[in-house]
Amino acid sequence: MRTTIALPTRDRTRSHVFLRDGLGLETPGELADDGVPEPLRATLSDSCEVMMIPTGGFKWVTGQLGDEPMDAATLPEGTKQCLVTIELGSRGDVEARYAAATALGHGVIEPESAPWGEYRAIVADPDGHLWQLTSR
């Protein structure tokens, strides 16, 4: 089974750079006229990917064409209540990926040992989605 997590984005190019360069994820696909793969997807594992849907697209994708607040354009700016976790190989990997991601987004929790035993850090992408970087 393949899983796709869909998140709204206000800027495809900015999201593409964050996913590819900040988080080090593969962003497969044929490039559109804006130089970004269409659809914009990032591979999380063999069976899971995240897809960044442009603002306005959630209502189109879900068929919610009324006044439902299904779109990033209708939500307030700031951090969203969604957390995507990427498990990395080591503490050094977490620290390196955190540094790269915060250069393109912003840090939320600096690398630390979590009470439950993982080493982790949390960054927010340019649209405010939270990404947790972990190692065991």
Secondary-structure class: alpha/beta
Radius of gyration: 15 Å
Taken from the alpha-carbon principal axes, the silhouette is: globular
Runs in which pLDDT lies below 50 for 5 or more consecutive residues are 67-75
Counted by DSSP, the helix tally is 3
Largest sheet: 4 strands, mixed
User: What proportion strand?
Assistant: 25-35%
Oligomer: single chain
Helicity, in percent?
Answer: 10-25%
Please tell me about this protein's structure.
The structure is a single chain. With 136 residues, the protein is an alpha/beta fold. The protein is built from three helices and seven strands, in the order βαββαβαβββ. The strands form two sheets. Strands 4-7-6-5 form a four-stranded mixed β-sheet, with helices on one face. The chain has a three-stranded mixed β-sheet with strand order 1-3-2, with helices on one face. β6 and β7 (130-135) form a beta hairpin. α1 (12-22) runs antiparallel to α3. It is globular and about 40 Å long. The two termini are 25 Å apart. The model is unreliable at 67-75 (pLDDT under 50).
Summarize the structure.
This protein is an alpha/beta fold. The protein is 21% helix and 33% strand. The protein has helices spanning 12-22, 57-62, 91-102; strands at 3-9, 40-45, 48-54, 83-87, 106-113, 119-124, 130-135.
